[in-house]
Write a structure and sequence with these properties.
The protein has nine helices and no strands. The protein is mainly alpha-helical and 207 residues long. Helix 1 packs parallel to helix 8 and helix 2 packs antiparallel against helix 9.
Amino acid sequence: MIDPVLLAAFVPAALLLNLTPGADMVFCLGQGLRAGTRAGVAASAGISAGVLVHVALAGLGLGAAVAAAPWLFEAIRWAGVAYLLWLAVGALRVTAPVARPVVPASARRAFRDGFAVNLMNPKVILFVLAFVPQFVDTSRGPVLIQFLMLGAVIAVGGFAINALVGVFAGRIGGWITRSNRVSRGLGAATAAIFTALAVRLAFLERA
């Protein structure tokens, strides 16, 4: 069980971190613009699921392997870069006019993409290793359970905030998509977002 005092300190700290604009928020913005409100929310859910996996890995001690093995860090990082660039190319292919389709599979794809992008960002697990242990008390039960509980706080808060960004982006995208020209411009803007995230990840430092 987590110390209530530590939890009281952790919740506002986690909320402030979630409110700080970052790659996850920008990714949900891009998904909302590209495929609508449902996709923006689903992308946020996928990112939160990825956070929980990172937290579980850190709790199991596997995160230490990423921190200690440069080749593993690099492999995960470049896989993430390639995936983001692949998403950017896909965004450029979206040229539909007014009826910008948000098919049932769109939300599933957005969830998958959000999950994959978060999971292939090794910086997340390094952040978890640096931040979460400060609020873990080994005398109060299994460390993994405490990691998961604290990770759930981060994941839920992040989902709520990023989902709002996705909803906003989806509505804006729906309002401005009225022609092939605008749709192509929207696709280009989304591709630019994904490309910028790929470049950011490519030049990411370990420390």
